[in-house]
């Protein structure tokens, strides 16, 4: 029985590890690292490494991606274009030409914008920032070129690296083993001739929010026109222990100037992720998403979405917001945000991705008077399903920058008052009764 139990536990652990990295709203989302050997050298090869982000709504923000691996033999990196190894390692055994990196476990980062052209290749040098595929497919890729020495010089003698790691920019990604695949085919600029890589292998990395952080990084609050109750984020929704916070009007911000210093460091490409400095709140989340059911029309209804940043050490560039609600399949108009449907399962269209308008509100600034963005969504009613009862008007799930936000408990949702009339009808009736009363008073007078 013991061997069977051990096998069962191993199988269960494998299933759980896969399930943890599975996102039901983006089931095929992953980051694929592709190595294409473009030419052979006397002692190795030259490869172009391409990082493709196939995640619909999760991007890699500044300070950008970090890729690492372990060489199968004693390979070295002679030179690189579009990226650099963070450490050279011990190259003392080389007398004349010194390699770019001699470490058996190199760590590679993207170059910053503005580097000389002779150090660049296509899709490089954005400081490691990669857009979400659903937001900007053309910018959802990064690439660099690496010249590898003391390696195989044929398809049979080349050994693929192992133990790949990816930070984007923090933890959360798990990478599988490198797999040799059919060679990539390229089209010449005139699109009349095809060439192909000499050898290609892929590495697939998937993201798990549970590996990235013990607590959520955002929370959701609710309100509605038909109820005076404002449902706040849950207390300590993002964890309260070991977090530094300041009051919004605290002198500490002016004295230390930490948020300005952090912004300047990010601009210089400083890669150390500074601990968040949060505004003191009951939920202690860096980001809050508020959903307000604003208006009810005869054939439409309107919701207002507001995103607030409580982190003094972080600006969110090219942020994304994803909401799941059955009426998002019938959006009539979105104000102040861009919008794309996220259709993960055939005809089921209940999920929408919102993001800022370029050069207008695609930057969610750090905590303070400008640390918020907001929009309104107008949706057409479906008479067979529409209701304000039992919290139907509120989203089922909310994601910010690819991480699922902590929702309020269902029993705390704003409830519909005990009235036989819809809120809009009751309001119209009340106004009519008031007008009649005023008219009667004038007649009597």
Automatic annotation (TrEMBL):
Keywords: Glycoprotein, Membrane, Signal, Transmembrane, Transmembrane helix. It holds the Pfam family COBRA. One of its GO terms (biological process) is cellulose microfibril organization. The keyword Metal-binding does not apply. It comes from the Eukaryota. The chain crosses the membrane at residues 420-444. InterPro entries: COB_C, COBRA_pln. Residues 1-21 form the signal peptide. GO terms for cellular component: plasma membrane. The keyword Zinc does not apply. Residues 217-414 form the COBRA C-terminal domain. Belongs to the COBRA family. This is COBRA-like protein.
């Amino acid at each position: 029985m013991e061997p069977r139990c051990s096998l069962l536990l191993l199988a269960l652990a494998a299933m759980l590890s896969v399930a943890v990295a599975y996102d039901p709203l983006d089931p095929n989302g992953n980051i694929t690292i592709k190595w294409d050997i473009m030419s052979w050298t006397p002692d190795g090869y030259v490869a172009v490494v391409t990082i493709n982000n196939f995640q619909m709504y999760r991007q890699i923000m500044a300070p950008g991606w970090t890729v690492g691996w372990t060489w199968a033999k004693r390979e070295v990196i002679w030179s690189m274009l579009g990226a650099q190894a963070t450490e050279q390692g011990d190259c003392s055994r080389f007398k004349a030409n010194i390699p770019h990196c001699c470490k058996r476990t190199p760590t590679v980062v993207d170059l910053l914008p503005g580097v000389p052209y002779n150090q660049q290749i296509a899709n490089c040098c954005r400081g490691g920032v990669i857009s979400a595929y659903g937001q900007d497919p053309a910018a959802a890729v990064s690439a660099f070129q690496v010249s590898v020495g003391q390696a195989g010089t044929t398809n049979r003698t080349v050994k693929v690296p192992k133990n790949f790691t990816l930070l984007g920019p923090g933890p959360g990604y798990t990478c599988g083993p490198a797999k040799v695949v059919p060679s990539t085919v390229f089209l010449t600029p005139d699109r009349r001739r095809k060439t192909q890589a000499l050898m290609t292998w892929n590495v697939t990395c998937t993201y798990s929010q549970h590996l990235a952080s013990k607590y959520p990084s955002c929370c959701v609050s609710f309100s509605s026109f038909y109820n005076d109750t404002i449902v706040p984020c849950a207390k300590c929704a993002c964890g309260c222990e070991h977090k530094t916070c300041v009051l919004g009007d605290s002198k500490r911000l002016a004295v230390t100037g930490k948020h300005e210093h952090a912004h300047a460091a990010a601009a210089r490409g400083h890669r150390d992720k500074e601990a968040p400095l949060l505004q003191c709140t009951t939920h202690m989340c860096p980001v809050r998403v508020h959903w307000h059911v604003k208006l009810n029309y005869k054939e439409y209804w309107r919701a207002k979405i507001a995103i607030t940043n409580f982190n003094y050490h972080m600006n969110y560039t090219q942020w994304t917001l994803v909401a799941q609600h059955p009426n998002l399949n019938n959006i009539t108009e979105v104000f102040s945000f861009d919008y794309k449907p996220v259709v993960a399962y055939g005809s089921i269209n209940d999920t929408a991705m919102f993001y800022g308008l370029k050069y207008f509100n695609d930057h969610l600034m750090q905590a303070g008077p400008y640390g918020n963005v907001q929009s309104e969504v107008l949706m057409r009613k479906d008479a067979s399903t529409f209701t304000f009862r039992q919290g139907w008007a509120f989203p089922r799930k909310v994601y910010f920058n690819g991480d699922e936000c902590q929702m309020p408990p269902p029993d705390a949702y704003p409830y519909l008052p005990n009235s036989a009339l819809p809120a809009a009808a009751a309001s119209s009736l009340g106004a009519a009764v008031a007008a009649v009363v005023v008219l009667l008073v004038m007649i009597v007078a």
